[in-house]
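#onboarding

Welcome to the new folks! Below is a worked example of what a typical request in this channel looks like: someone posts a single protein sequence, and someone else replies with the predicted structure as tokens. Don't worry about understanding the tokens yet, we'll cover that in week two.

Example request:
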Amino acid sequence: MKKSFGISLFLSAIVAAHFIACSDSSSEPDSPDTPEVSEPEDTPDAPSSAQCKELYGITEKNSWSKTITNSTILNKEACSKAAEFISQTGNLDISCYEAMLNPEENRIDFILNSEYGYRGVWIKLNGCKYKLGSDGDFNTLIPKATEWEFDGCLCKVEKGVTYYRNIAPKKTEESSSSKEEEISSSSETFHSWQSSSSISYVPPLEAVAGTMVDTRDNREYKTVTIGTQTWMAENLAYAYVEPTKTQDSSSFCDDKDPDYCEKYGRLYLWSAAMDSAAVFSEDGKGCGYDFRKCANENNSNGKIRGICPEGWHLPNVDEYEVLFTAIGGQKEPSFPDWNNVEKSLKSIEGWKEYEGRDGNGFDDYGFNVMPVGRADDTENVHLYDQGGVAFFWTSDNRNDFTAEIITFHNWTPEVSNSGTGMNSYLSIRCLKD
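Example response:
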């Protein structure tokens, strides 16, 4: 009995050993001791931490994300690359205006500011690589673009998963100071706003409505006083008929709609806004006409009357800042967009809906920004963007071809300061001296 049990145990051991050997042979690739063979990662060379900190201000505390958020690092890097390529390839003056994530298309959409106005392009994401494209703008230049790649500070691929830097870099006091210096010295960066900490908030109920009469044509305008400023509460409609090299008038009314000017005011070239013909003052003489420089660039009082009535002037960017701050507007230093402004200043009707977003405002202060649109100084001046955008000239210029403007949109809550070509016809709001 004991002998039989011993033989059975011995045979069982042999069978088990044979089974284990066969099993090991057939499952060898899955053995944890076998080195894993992986495909090479499609990721850029990783710079050192010191390099990332030097280039972008990134530290180890800045996190990674599987999705792109509104990261100023990634958006600025890609938009700058696109603007630089189009500028160099097309010999154009291009700068970044705004970036918007488009997750449904796996891309980032950009609005570029050019000497011909706003133009749209986008980048299609493929891991850390991205390709420039558009829906029609710059269509002769886009095919010449190669595929670009975010560097290892901004993007990495691990085991087939792409990770992005999803927050803006933290700036030291020294780097912030140098950045402000860069912003104020570059002609292609956004306007550097002055400090507004001394401006007090003005509730809507404290805004004071009034009227004024332009004695040049006896037209009456609504006005509104908000804090220390008194603004026209309607767009200027004075017919400035000084000719340009290509047009018989430097202001525009839609002749297809007899009530257009009565409702929306006129649209003006920047040369007309500045009164470059010096009809009313010498302040803006020569400004913008045939892209000429202003004759009086060092205006002693800092105010340009321009085409505005006597006792009023064409506001500069900083004066718009005072208005926006007084009604509770907020913005990040060195960025061009204002929040908490749009609804308070827009008209309550006339704005088109955009993808379910109501473009109309509440007009809390009686400022009544209407979606007038714009026109361009082409062979045949034509109106477009009506119902979706309002543009206002300022007395500031960026360079010999572009001037600073203030823009309200129907598709975003942000009110922006940017530049556009002086050959655009835009609206004017005058500010009391």
